[in-house]
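# step 3/5: fold
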Amino acid sequence: MSRPRRWQVAFAVCLALAGTAGVVTTAHADTAPSVWERARDPATAESYRLHVEVQQRLAQSQTAADFGFSSAFESQKDTVRVMLERRGAASSQDLRLRFDLGFVYVLLGKTEELTYYRLAASLLGEALEIGPDHPAAEEAWSRLAEACGHLGDHACERRAYMSVLRLTTEEADRGTSTLNLAETDLHVGRLTEAIRGYREALRIASRSPSRTLAPLALWGLAVALDRSGDTVSADKEALAVLELQASSGLGGLLRSSGVFFYPDYELRWYDGVGASARARKPGVTAADAAREWRFAEDAFAAYVAAAERGTNSGAGRSRPSTTPADRWLELAKVRYANAKRERERAEKRRGKLPVTLPGTDDETSL
C-alpha cells in the first residue's frame, strides 16, 4: 500500500515533557525550563539544550539536503544518534529526548534495512505508554506508525494512526493520517473501512493545499474497489487519477521518494489496476489494448512471484516469520490470468503478434 510521509525532517514541533509519574514536566510545549524547574532538577536544563541542538542539526542538514547536499544530512543523522545514545536518551526522564531518538531511528531506517525501524518501534511504543496524550504525542504516534508500517506490524500501525487522528484537532492536518489508516485497512482486508477512509481523505483533500493527497487517495480507492470486486468503479477512479496526474504534472507519484509501499511489490498491483483501466477504456484500439493488457499481465505476474517468494522485493528483505502469507495472492493470480486472456484476445483483434512492451514513460507515469 502507498503511504505518504506527513513530514520531512524538521521535528521542531510542539514537543513537551509528559506529566506522568517519574517523568519531568513543563507547563508549555517545547519551552525552556523555568528557574524553578532548573533548581528542582539541574538535569532538566541540560536535556533541553541537547534537545534544541538535535533539532537545529537536523533542520540545518535538511536545508542543505534540499539544496542538493544530501550527504550532509546523511552524516548528521548518525552524529545525532550517537549524541543522543551517549546521553542515555532512550531511558531519559525527558520524553523529548526519547522522541528525538525515536525519530532519528526512523530516519536511519530508510537506509539501514529494518534494524532501526525495530528500535524506533520499541522506543516510541514505550515512551507513548508513559505519555500518550502530551503535546508531542501526535507527531510521536505518526513516527511509530511509519516504523510499524515498514515492519509489517499492521496492528501497531493501525493503533498509531487511530491515536494520531484522536489527537489531531485541525481537519486539514487529518488528511494524510486518514489516508494512511485507509491504506492499513486495505492491507489487512478491511475493505469497507478502507473505501470509507479513502473517500474521507478525498473530502479533506478538496479543502487542502496538498497536491498529492487527492491522487494518492484516488489510487488507494481504485485498488480497494478492485479488490472488492467492483471493477467498473475501480476503472473509473483509476482513469480519474491518471488524468489528474497528467494535468497536474504529478507523473511518477507512486514511485516518488515521498511514498512507500509495504510490501514493496504492492506497487505492482497499482500498475496492474491502472493498465487494466486504460485497456478497458471506451474507444481504445486493439493495439493499445494489447499493450496495456501486456503491462497489466506483467504487473500481476510480478506481484504473484514476489508474494510466493515471501519477500519485500524492492529491498530484498525476507518477510518476518510472524507475518502471514500474502492475503491477496490468490486474487492476484485471478487478475494475472484475466490480463493474459484479454491480452491474447486483443492481439487476435489486432491481427499480429507479439506486442511491444510499454516504455519507461508508460510505467513511471503511475
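# step 4/5: annotate
The radius of gyration is 23 Å.
# step 5/5: archive (pending)
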